[in-house]
């Protein structure tokens, strides 16, 4: 097939190009169990077209992946999601969403390399899928905040009741969010940034 010059791919879209003013970058990871909204959060808040690695779910996952409560889900992340936010003209935040299925957790090692912290997304319909995720973060010593993602049919609980159910220390922030909306996802990331700032020892 012959291609015209107008068909040639010349590079990223202008809105995806990293600003010339950017001088520093930080990395944050969005984690959680299968189907809790990680891809949705990265997509809603990223200022660039997000990179996703979603694949159609097949019979190969039957009996291997636990999709109870999200039976209607037809695709899943198999490697990572990636997005970007400019915090200031100089500071850029890179977002990496992890795969939720346990069989892909070996990819976490690379995704967490150099990460400042994590946002844990929780679905109250399937609270148990968050236990191992939080445990792994605690084992790694990765600072994290917990965002209770709003699903229309999900039961509502007092946040302090959820803190106790998840066995979270008092100092770990826990809050409601809706990963479908940019403002809510942005607020979740800003909560993590404030938490990380509070953890940083003051210098003379």
UniProtKB/TrEMBL annotation:
Entry keyword Magnesium: no
Record key words, sorted: ATP-binding, GTP-binding, Hydrolase, Nucleotide-binding
TM annotation in the entry: none
Keyword Hydrolase attached: yes
GO molecular function: ATP binding
Signal peptide (from-to): none
Superkingdom of source: Bacteria
UniProt family annotation: Belongs to the GPN-loop GTPase family.
Name of protein: ATP-binding protein
Source organism per UniProt: Streptomyces koyangensis
